[in-house]
Amino acid sequence: MNFFKTVAQSKLAGPFTFLMVFLPVLFSYGQKYIDVQNKDIPSMRTANSYTVANEDGSFTNTNHSHPIHFKEDQTLQPIDLNIIANPGLLNPEFPYVNASNTLKSYIPVEISQGLLTETEDGFTIKDFKNPRMYAEMQGASINPQFINE
């Protein structure tokens, strides 16, 4: 107890405080930022997870409650949610598309036109053709509002 009291009262208090408190902050003790992008191991992917290799030789698996990969040519590819301008204009009434996944989603300028989805086999589904918003009470629609009206 007398040692700390003597140090606190001496002229060494400043340098001693620096050595004990601030010096450890200057050193990271071997911790460093590790960029985990592009270290995904494709052979360890599942529809809902991916695995990365750590620098120490271990692996880290991240699971999701929803699919994050889709199957293409017997491999799992990341799902891309980006919407771009429809480059080929295969369906000219839909100027926007997400064509990078198993299902191609075509999006119109006006939502009243509905959405078009195309499968790998060329089968198309047009949905959301006459959307409406309403409240429901005891099985009855209350104040329905149609977009096409």
How many helical elements? 2
Main β-sheet, spatial strand arrangement: 5-6-7-8-9
Q: C-alpha Rg, in Å?
A: 30 Å
| Helix-and-strand structural type | alpha+beta
List the uncertain runs: 21-34
Shape: extended
Order of helices and strands: HHEEEEEEEEEEE
Helix amount: 10-25%
Q: How would you explain this protein's 3D organization?
A:
This protein is an alpha+beta fold and 149 residues long. It has a domain at 80-149. Helix content is 15%, strand content 32%. The chain is built from two helices and eleven strands. It has helices spanning 2-9, 13-26, and strands at residues 49-53, 59-63, 69-72, 75-78, 84-85, 96-98, 104-107, 115-118, 124-127, 132-137, 140-146. The strands form four sheets. A five-stranded antiparallel beta sheet has the order 5-6-7-8-9, with no helix packed on it. A two-stranded antiparallel sheet has the order 1-2. The longest helix has 14 residues, at 13-26. The protein is extended and about 60 Å long. The model is unreliable at 21-34 (pLDDT under 50).
